[in-house]
Design a protein that fits this description.
four-stranded antiparallel beta sheet; single chain; alpha+beta; globular; 4 strands
Length: about 375
C-alpha cells in the first residue's frame, strides 16, 4: 500500500502575514474606538458595532477591487492585454472580444487579474509594474483615506470609515508587497522579486500567462505545443514560478490520458523539496488519486486521502478536479448516493466555470472512471 506522509510546514511568510494583520488591525481598532460616537443603550451599541463590522468588510472588498484594478491598469500600461478579472468568486473574462461573467473560487486568494503578456524581447519582459501595480494603488488609496481622516472631524462614523479604509489599504499593500510565500500561493512581491533574479522564472511567468489566455479562449492543454510543457530541472523546481510549469506538465499528460506517465511525473515532483505551492500539491494529489483508481488500485487511492487532503478537498469542494476526485472515490466505494451528489455538483459547476476546456477534460476523466468501476 502506498502511504502518504505529510509534513506540517508553517512558512515564515505566513507567520509574518498574520503578524501584520494582527498589528495593523489592532492599531485600526484602537484609533477607531476613540473616533466612535458615544451612544447609550445596548441596542444602539450593538447597531454601532454592526456598522463598524460592515465598514470593515466593505473596506476589504473595495481594497481588493482596487488592488486588482491596479494590476489591470499597470498591466495595460506595460503592454499586456486583458484576459480575466476576478473578485471573490465573480470572474469576468474576455472571450471572442466580449466580456462574460463566470464563477471561480481559488483557495488563498480574494481576487486575481490575469493578462496576456507581450512577446519577450531578448529574454526580457516588463513584470515589476504589472505585479506591483495593485500594491501601488492600495498605497495611494490608503494615503487618500488617511488624509481625509486627518483633515476632517475625528469623531463619527465618517471618521471611522476613513480610518478603516486607510488601514485596510495599507495592510493590503504590505501583505501583497513584502515578498512572502504564504503556503497556498506566492504574493505579488515575491513574484516580482523572483522574476527579477531568475531568467527561467521569467520565461515560466510568460508561459503561464500565455497558457491561461489559451484556456480562456477554450483551448485544451493537450492541443497546445508539447514543448510548452517541458519539465523543469530539479534545481529549477525550487523556484515557485518555475515549479508551476512542472504542474502544467502533469496536467498536460493527464489531459492526453497518458496516466502512467502523468502519475510517475507527479510522484517525482511531489517528492522534491521544491517551490511548489500547497494549492498545486493538493490538486496533483487529486490527480494521483484518480490515476490510482483508473488502474483499479483503490487501496493506494485511499492511502492518499490523508486528513490534510480531505480538509483541502472540503475547502475546494466546488472545484471541478475536486468534484471529479470525489466522484471517483464514491464510485470505487460503491456509494451511489455520493456518486449522484457529485454528478449534480459537477453539472452545476460546469454552467458557471470560466474554463470550458477544463470541464471537457474532467468530464472525460469521469467517464473513464465510470467505465473502470
Amino acid at each position: 500500500m502506498e502511504k502518504t506522509r505529510e509534513k506540517k510546514r508553517v512558512r515564515p511568510g505566513f507567520i509574518l502575514a498574520v503578524a501584520l494583520n494582527v498589528g495593523v488591525t489592532a492599531v485600526i481598532g484602537y484609533l477607531a474606538a476613540a473616533s466612535l460616537p458615544k451612544v447609550a443603550g445596548l441596542g444602539k451599541q450593538l447597531l454601532l458595532l454592526g456598522a463598524v463590522l460592515l465598514l470593515l468588510y466593505l473596506a476589504f472588498l473595495v481594497q481588493t477591487v482596487i488592488h486588482e484594478a491596479g494590476h489591470l491598469l499597470f498591466g495595460l500600461w506595460s503592454g499586456y492585454r486583458f484576459s480575466s478579472f476576478r473578485v471573490l468568486n465573480f470572474m469576468w473574462l474576455k472571450v471572442d472580444g466580449r466580456l462574460r461573467l463566470r464563477r471561480l473560487s481559488v483557495l488563498g486568494t480574494g481576487g486575481q487579474c490575469l493578462m496576456t503578456p507581450p512577446e519577450m524581447v531578448e529574454g526580457k519582459l516588463p513584470v515589476v509594474a504589472y505585479n506591483l501595480g495593485g500594491v501601488v494603488v492600495n498605497l495611494l488609496a490608503g494615503g487618500l483615506c488617511l488624509g481625509l481622516y486627518l483633515a476632517g472631524p475625528r469623531v463619527g462614523l465618517g471618521a471611522v470609515a476613513a480610518l478603516i479604509f486607510s488601514g485596510v489599504g495599507f495592510l493590503t499593500a504590505l501583505v501583497n508587497g513584502i515578498p512572502l510565500r504564504l503556503g497556498t500561493v506566492d504574493n505579488d512581491g515575491y513574484n516580482a522579486y523572483s522574476l527579477g533574479r531568475d531568467p527561467e522564472a521569467l520565461r515560466a511567468f510568460w508561459l503561464q500567462l500565455q497558457l491561461n489566455g489559451q484556456m480562456v479562449q477554450g483551448k485544451r492543454l493537450k492541443d497546445l505545443p508539447e514543448e510548452w510543457f517541458a519539465v523543469p530541472s530539479d534545481e529549477g523546481m525550487k523556484n515557485g514560478m518555475v515549479a508551476t510549469l512542472g504542474v502544467f506538465a502533469c496536467n498536460y499528460w493527464m489531459d492526453r490520458h497518458c496516466f502512467e506517465k502523468a502519475d510517475a511525473l507527479m510522484a517525482r515532483l511531489l517528492g522534491l523539496d521544491s517551490g511548489m505551492v500547497d494549492l498545486h500539491r493538493r490538486l496533483l494529489l487529486c490527480d494521483r488519486l484518480t490515476c490510482a483508481l483508473l488502474r483499479g488500485d483503490r487501496e493506494a487511492a485511499e492511502a492518499m486521502c490523508s486528513r490534510g487532503q480531505k480538509k483541502f478537498m472540503q475547502s475546494m469542494k466546488n472545484f471541478p478536479a475536486v468534484i471529479r476526485t470525489e466522484y471517483a472515490l464514491a464510485l470505487a466505494a460503491g456509494d451511489h448516493g455520493a456518486v449522484e451528489a457529485a454528478q449534480k455538483r459537477f453539472e452545476k459547476c460546469a454552467k458557471r466555470y470560466p474554463y470550458p476546456s477544463d470541464i471537457a477534460g474532467e468530464r472525460e476523466l469521469m467517464g473513464l472512471v465510470g467505465e473502470k468501476w
